[in-house]
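Incident log entry.

Two folding requests arrived from the same account within the same minute. Monitoring flagged them as a possible duplicate submission, but the sequences differ. Recording both here for audit purposes.

Request one:
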Amino acid sequence: MEVKHQEITLDLNDNRNYTLLKAHQGDRGTRFIDVSLKHSGEDFILQENYTAIVKASNNGVTKGLNQCEIDIENNKVIVELTDTMLDTAGVLTCEISILENRQIVTSQIFSINVVLSAVTDEEGITESEVYGYLVELLKKNAEIADEAKFIEDIIENFGTVTDVSQILEQVRLNSQSVSFLTEK
C-alpha cells in the first residue's frame, strides 16, 4: 500500500507555526512527511554527514525523538509518523533538528492534527453487538470449543461406559452442545 507523502517547507530562521497537517490515529507505516528546509528563504542543502531528528509531543507528552531519513538527491528530510506519534488523538507538535558534529540547528515548529479513530478500544469490539458478524463468529467459535470439549469427555470416559443408554442420556442432556452431530 502506498500513501502519498505530505510535503512541507520549513525555515530554520522562522518561528511561526506552519499550516496544520492531518493524520489519523492508529495509522501505521503509511504516514510520511517530506520536509524541505530553508535558511532565511534560501535552500538549506543537506549533506551526507548530517543527522536529522524529529521531535514530537502531544499535550506536553513526548511522542517521538526519532532519526529521519535524509534524501540527499531530492534535498528532503523524510519524517515517518510512527505508531507512538499517532497513538493519541489531538495536536502533535513537531520540529526537525539537523545535527553535524556538535552543531545543531532546529526548524520552525509544525503541527499535525491526529484525528480520533472511530474505534480506539479494539478489545471493546467483541463486547459490542454493533459488530454483528464478528460477534457471531466469536460465539460460533465458543460453541465449537464447547462441542469439542464434550466429545473429548465422552472419548476419555468411553472405557467406563457399561451401557449405551448412559451415552444417550448424556447426549440428551447436552443436546445443544452437540447440535452439530444431528445437523448432518
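Request two (distinct sequence, not a duplicate):
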Amino acid sequence: GTAWYVEWAGYDGSQCYQLRLETAPAASQEGPNNGHGVLQILTWPRATPPAAGAAGQTIASNLVTDSNGPFERADAGEMVDPSASTGADFTPDFQQLAVHVTAQRGDSIAHVDTTFTALNTSRNTPDTNDCSRGRPT
C-alpha cells in the first residue's frame, strides 16, 4: 500500500515492534506534513496485537523516500554497505537494519542514513517470529 515497514521481536520475544514510514498520511495527519511521510513506531505484547489502523508514536514527519524504500535489512554474514572500509575479510555476525530517510520542509532538506546492529541475533536467528501474526496495518 502506502507504507514501508519492518518488524522485529524484542530481546526476549515478549514484545513486538514495527517501524513504519507511512508515505500517504491519513487526512487527520496531513496538516503540517504537506503530504510527506510520517515515521512511526508501534509496540505490542506478542500475544496481544493492536487493532487494525492503530496509530503509532510519531518519530519524524515531512519525510520522503525513493522507490527503494527507507529500510535495508542484512542477515548475519552479509554487509548492509559492502563499500564500507571494514576490511576484505570482515563478516558481521549479527543482523543489521539500515534506515535511509530524507526530511524535506520547503527548500530545506536533511538526509539521514544510519545502520542498527541487532546484537541479540546470530547467523542462526530465524527470519520469522510470532510478531508477524496480528501485524498492524
